[in-house]
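Troubleshooting log. The previous structure file for this entry was overwritten by mistake, so regenerating from the original sequence record. Sequence copied from the archived sheet and checked twice against the printout by T.R.
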Amino acid sequence: MASVNLREEAALMLTRSSVVAELEIHDARIIVDAMRPMAVRAGTVIMREGQDDDVDYMALVLEGQVRAESSGMGDGNEVVISVIDAGQLFGEMGLIDGSPRSATCTALTDLKLAMLTRKALRGLVEVQPGVAARLMLSISRGLADRLRESNRRLRTLSQISRAMQAELGTTHALNKRLLAEKARTKG
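Regenerated output below.
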């Protein structure tokens, strides 16, 4: 990374990031040194849902905000998953597995990012295996937290769906009864 102040600021952000908060400042500095800086203009799509090339990196937002959204039900309506602020990471799954992107990430503002590629991570594994292991454990913990939250939301949606189905069933039965009564009174 370019300047010493930006390097230190990025390292401090990593130690405070909800995903990798357990990293010590020394570890964070080593990770930041493996990252490359990137400036992105507002409105730029950084990664697109389903994208299967150039997926082997994650980014730390140093300045600005990123909107993460998904195509939802495939009906063309985008669902905002989250707004990612300075000090937060995105793209971790691509760093780990290289699979197609699961969300579209767009710069809401001009951004300063620090990018960590899989190649740089492999270099960390070889040169600083302890730091790389602590980073991967932290990322894994963050992904597990998001999965638990997704499961909680899924349970809530399932409960709402069951309640709506029960309500529709009751309404259908009532409508059937009313139609039958109306047919008897006409007959």
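The first strand starts at residue 36 and ends at 40. Archived copy saved in two places this time.
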